[in-house]
What we know:
Elements: E1 4-15, E2 18-29, E3 33-37, H1 44-51, E4 59-64, E5 67-68, H2 74-79, E6 82-85, H3 97-103, H4 111-124, H5 126-130, H6 141-153, E7 159-163, H7 171-186, E8 190-195, H8 198-204, E9 207-212, E10 215-221, H9 222-225, H10 229-235
Helix pairs in contact: 3-6
Amino acid sequence: MSENALNIRELKVNYGSIEALKGINISVKSGQIVALLGSNGAGKTTTLRKISGVLEANSGSVELFGKDITKLVANKIASLGVIQSPEGRQIFRDLTVEENLLTGAYTVRDKKAIQKNFERVYKYFPVLKERCRQVGSTLSGGEQQMLAIGRALMGNPKLLLLDEPSLGLAPLIVKSIFEIIKEIREDGTTVLIVEQNALQTLKIADYAYVLEVGKITMEGKSEDLIHNPQLIEAYLGGRKE
């Protein structure tokens, strides 16, 4: 087995005549949190959608634990353990918290495993246990984000893809969710996180890539990037907290 959970090589993805990804290379080591940073339109979500099998590549390859998944369809990739928590949360607003979580376990056949997954999710997010009978639409934005991540965890991810988990949330809630993402990694799940909130993400990530208009323009250990003057100016608003 490769020590890398994910290897992306020279990946190109087009939307019609527009080149969304222009030959990017990304590696995610097993047991790490790796961040993909960049502004809107940089190609971050496109990258996740290709990893998940929602989009086709024009060229290049995607490998999961040494297995080529470039041409596999989305449900097959999910069954291999690549699970995404989408941007904008996209929970089922009319279903209860418990029902929402169950939809995330559709690839898990073992009832005992599903029960264990419920316990795991409720350990990370005790508020979801308290709200298990409430419908999704009655939850706060932060609780809905917790539910989206919890739903992804119900599928036993080997690689958890998080798309903008801080979007639209108050700073205190963001801090709390990011601490839980760290816990998820400490418990053995590899995480690829896409974010505009560079500062908070670099505080929890092991390694990061900066994507600009479909190209990787910078990469390195998070502890180095957080002090990089170019990155501070572009993404951290000149602040080095």
